[in-house]
Amino acid sequence: MTQLQFPAGFLWGSATASFQIEGATTEDGRGESIWDRFCATPGKVMNGDTGDPACDHYHRWRDDIALMKDLGLHAYRFSIAWPRILPRGTGQVNPAGLDFYDRLVDGLLEAGITPFVTLYHWDLPQVLEDAGGWPNRNTASAFAHYADVVARRLGDRVRHWITLNEPWCSSVLSYWIGEHAPGIKNGPAVAAAHHLLLAHGLAVPAIRAASPGAQVGITLNFSPADPASDSEADRAAARRHDGFFNRWFLDPLYRGSYPVDMLEHYAKLNQSPPVQGGDLATIAAPIDFLGVNYYNRAVIRDDPEAGGPGYTFERPEGEYTHMDWEVHPDSLRRLLERLHAEYAPGPLYITENGAAYPDEVAPDGGVHDPDRTRYIERHLAACHAAMMAGVPLKGYFVWSLMDNFEWAWGYTRRFGIVYVDYATQRRIPKDSALFFRRVAAANAL
Ligand code: FCB
Predict the structure, then answer these.
(1) Do β-strands 11-15 and 75-79 pair in parallel, antiparallel, or remain unpaired?
(2) Handedness of CA 165, 168, 171, 176 (dihedral sign)
(3) 212: number of Cβ within 10 Å
(4) In 10 A of CB 209, how many CB atoms?
(5) Which residues face 75 on adjacent strands?
(6) What pTM was computed for the model?
(7) Does the C-beta of 399 come closer than 6 Å to ligand 1?
(8) What distance in angstroms lies between residue 174's CA and the mean position of ligand 1's atoms?
(9) Which helix (H) or strand (E) holds 374?
(10) Does the beta carbon of 16 sit less than 6 angstroms from any atom of ligand 1?
């Protein structure tokens, strides 16, 4: 392969999330989150794993910054735990929580690493869930208040803000499918999704006011849909999947309306978004960048018997990761080109991309993960191709800096470019980390 050069200033980073790495879930006044409660509920998380000690990052953050510096990373996307800042969701601020992230931000800046702060990566304060969670409109205003508190404290140094991570997961996966906290099945997921989007819209001006000149964006997860065959029915089903997963969030953010075909489908499922006057304008207020999380595509077959949206997922021949997710880099290229062409969000960042494999420490002490290296390499080539086609992609954050708590999978799925030995908390850069360091240093593939 000839060398693929990235533009000067392209950001090479890694991403994590508070609940997945911090541990210390009861320390320094942190309140309970819905993920603490979910983990404590038997049968919800594999092996009964919990957020403790995770990667013990709450105590080892200095070492983790040093690790990123050693890998030559330019940027770090992390999230803030709302229950550390406002243990009761609203009201009394916990200074120790703010102090932790304040030190982290200073440490990153000293190391020459640009912080990208995600405000919500799923750890809702449990008290807010008890009051109705995301299906309750009040949660949106509580979020705007929380965003204001954090931006006032960090906004002089943090220049890049991401309001929400993957609202599809914190609505549909959490209140309809029930696989994520709070684990509600067939609940008011569409209301949850609307209030998440509203929370985003309300937080944007609050962040801008407290952090003048900052770049504010949102991160969505995408599931590009291919029909299982050329039949009209399969193509319509793929379009539905695209609607439920991708357009449901893109359209209100970038067009100020929900997709009409999906409103009709949701009405059949007795769900409709509880829109109040002005909501859609609030949601669609211009933002500075779009964060793209991409792992795999979906291949869709129409199936009226399937219930819900009326389709099933095919499992085409191909390569699969430990999550049983198909490796399909060209769908990332197509996704980026489509987003740029159809929604024109301006600057884009890959805020997550990566793969789980069952890594082990080899007798030589290294962790040899050629599949992950190959995964990253092929997806970077896809990014490069999209950029050549005119997509303004500004950076790539690998998921993840280190192995961590993979939600309902507990610690059984390793996504890190750095291996974590949970018993000793030793970190071992995998071969993929060394590969990523070379790419970042050369700014080329
Ligand atoms: C995404 C999440 C992230 C991680 C990866 C594998 O959906 O945002 O926290 O779990 O999947």
Answers:
(1) parallel
(2) negative
(3) 9
(4) 12
(5) 13, 114
(6) 0.98
(7) yes
(8) 14
(9) helix 370-388
(10) no
CB atoms within 10 A of CB 272: 14
pLDDT in tens, 308-356: 889 999 999 999 999 999 999 999 999 999 999 999 999 999 999 999 9
Please state, in angstroms and rounded to a whole number, the distance separating the CA atoms of residues 120 and 133.
14
Is residue 307 classed as helix, strand or coil in its secondary structure? coil
Domains of the chain: 11-442 (3.20.20.80)
Q: Ligand 1: which atom is nearest the Cα of residue 166? A: 8
HEC-encoded secondary structure of 304-321: HHHCCCCEEECCCCCCEC
Query: Residue 141: is it exposed, middle or buried by C-beta count within 10 angstroms (0-12/13-18/19+)?
Result: middle
Residue 166 beta carbon below 6 angstroms from any ligand 1 atom? yes
Residue among 35, 220, 223, 352 whose CB has most ligand 1 atoms within 8 A, to mutate: 352
Residue range 49-78, pLDDT digits in tens:
999 999 999 999 999 999 999 999 999 999
Dist. CA 127 → ligand 1 center (Å): 24
- Transcribe 61-109 into DSSP letters: HHHHHHHHHHTT--EEEEE--HHHH-TTSSSS--HHHHHHHHHHHHHHH
**Which amino acid residue places its CA nearest to atom 10 of ligand 1?**
406
* Residue 10 backbone dihedrals phi, psi, to 5 degrees: -60, 135
Cα 328 to ligand 1 centre (Å)? 17
- Which residues on adjacent β-strands are paired with residue 350? 292, 396
Task: Give the span between the Cα atoms of 150 and 153, in whole angstroms.
Answer: 5
Q: What average pLDDT does the structure give for the chain?
A: 98
Q: Measured from the CA of 169, which atom of ligand 1 is nearest?
A: 7
CA distance 284 to 257: 8
Q: Is 317 a catalytic residue?
A: no
Q: What is the DSSP letter of 52?
A: S
Among the listed residues 22, 32, 326, 352, the single catalytic one is 352
Helix/strand/coil for 172: helix
Q: What is the DSSP string of 111-157?
A: TT-EEEEEEESS--BHHHHHTT-TTSTHHHHHHHHHHHHHHHHHTTT
32 flagged as catalytic? no
Length of the chain: 445
